[in-house]
Amino acid sequence: MKLNLLLVLFLCCITLNSQNIEIEELQDEIKTNLFKKPDSAKAYLFKLLKYSSLRPDTAVAKTYSNLGITYNQLAIYDSATYFFKKGIDLVKDHPLIKAQLLCNLAINYRTNAAYSKSMKTLQTALSIYKTLDDLNGKGLVYGEMASNYNYMSQKEKAISYLKKAISIFRETEDPRLYILQQKLANAYYNNGNYEFAVEIFEQVLPEFQKQKGAPYYLTLLAYAESLIEIGKEAAGEARLIEAKNGLREVNNLEYMHVAQAKLAKLYFHTNRSALAAKAFEDSYEYLRDHHSTRFLQIAADYLEFLNDQGQFDAAYRIVEEVEEVTNDYSFKMNGQDELRFLIAAENTYRKRKQFELSLKVYDRIDFLKDSIRSAEDRIKIAELEESYQNEIQGEKNRTLARTNNLLKESARKQLNITILSCILTVLIFGLSIAFYQNHRKKLRLQKEAVWQLEKANIVLKEKQELENELLAEKEKRLGDKERELVAISLEAADTQNQIRDVLEAKRDESTSEICSLIENIIGQRNYWNHFKTKFVEVHPKFSYNLGEMFPELTDNDIAFCSLLKLQLTNKEIASLLGISHQSVISKKYRVKKKMQLQDNDESFDQLMREL
């Protein structure tokens, strides 16, 4: 019995040991492939989950988090969110790990342009780190908040939070400082400070290059564009190609096509239109079909290219398609993507002489410009207020210290007088500087106000020109339709009358039956009803308005008035209705009598023209 028990224990030890070895091997493979080959890492992670019962909850939670990271790299954001949340649920009693997983979840939200969710998640993580007094954790959250503001084009706010995070990491000598420096480079790149961005990118790229994964290739994208912006197109193109090939290798196809679209933009600006067209089309279709948040940005670049090439019909198809598939431009990183696309779309409408659509888009462009400018102004004002409050508090503290010193040194009156004189001199000097700066600020604001008025005047003139062109086009089309209506109707009536005249001239006993048959056929073609249908298409509100003004008019009276609206002669009306000239005059007199205008021909004719 004892021998059997020992044998069972021995077998259990061997099984556990083999399982532990397999777990360690899987963890090594995951560490190697997590950022280089996310597809392979995903397979190893699912195998590792089979051993969840043998591992602590914290370890299983990190496995779920790594699964979220792989799905994020593969641009499958819903699955990434699902696994991040599963991991968070397992570590409710482990706040430090929970905060780390919350940061990963916030990054996934940001990548999918869900900025409000991302900021809310980061605030939760920040509160945990503050409770734990974890300074590095706070620096990490500030860095991710800065990235959110960067993606939202709130540039000053992004740089402000990054400086806070970098200050913390320098103080704690955190080895992840280069990650924050890369975020700072991205912020300066988005702010248009390309030379400084290039300088920072070149400092941090060697660290990312040690593990050639998605973070390295994504950093290359911004670095390459910065190189292009400072005139180093050849170096920028080489980096873009490296990023594109690397992203394809790690199976991040979304950003691989983003890199390809950036290459297309470079081809466009370096007169390689054929290459640009192929690359733009391929990237546009992939990002559209996968509902990428970078889609609208690439669609704007593609639309600008088509407009430049004079392919306005193709550009118009792109505009229609984007409006349909994005559901009011929902696939976008920020409001600036929509603004760039609408500016290009407005150019397309204008080139195609679609002035009504152009005018409609123009209003949306103005609204977006004002919104973006207002958001930036609010950020600057908030920062200035914060700075001003700090200065005021500092001044209060200094004043209190001076007061205490004066009380302690009451015996040294002469020294106090000297100190007070110095303080007054400084205050006068400070007030002079403040007055001078305030005066300069007023002048700057006045100049800006004049510029805004001039701009508004230009916009108003452009809108008026568009409206005038549209009105002229409408009036021309209306005149053409009226002439076509009258011509067709008179021609039909004239043909009908000629046939009747011929029948009357040739009628005798032998042809009487045939003539009657022809007259019946002519009677079945109701040209008058055809005329009324066409008239309603040209003047849809005429009959309704006339009936509202003069309820005593019958439908036949209103139909008769429609002929007068077209300014037909009595002879033409008689021909069209198949009645005599005198009957037309009588009919007109009866209608005017019902309208109580029988003694005022001029008012009647004017009413018919203007109604």
TrEMBL record:
Q: Where are the TPR repeats?
A: 61-94
Looking up InterPro entries in the UniProt record yields: Bac_ResReg_Asp_Phosphatase, Sig_transdc_resp-reg_C-effctor, TPR-like_helical_dom_sf, TPR_rpt, Tscrpt_reg_LuxR_C, WH-like_DNA-bd_sf
Q: Provide the coiled-coil residue spans.
A: 453-491
Signal peptide range: 1-20
The answer to whether keyword Transmembrane helix applies is: yes
* Residues covered by the HTH luxR-type domain: 550-607
Question: Is Repeat found in the keyword set?
Answer: yes
Q: Give TM segment ranges.
A: 415-436
Keywords of the record: Coiled coil, Cytoplasm, Membrane, Repeat, Signal, TPR repeat, Transmembrane, Transmembrane helix
UniProt subcellular location: Cytoplasm
**Database matches in Gene3D superfamilies:** Tetratricopeptide repeat domain (1.25.40.10), Winged helix-like DNA-binding domain superfamily/Winged helix DNA-binding domain (1.10.10.10)
Family, according to the entry, reads as follows: Belongs to the Rap family.
Q: What is this protein called?
A: HTH luxR-type domain-containing protein
Q: Which organism is it from?
A: Aequorivita iocasae
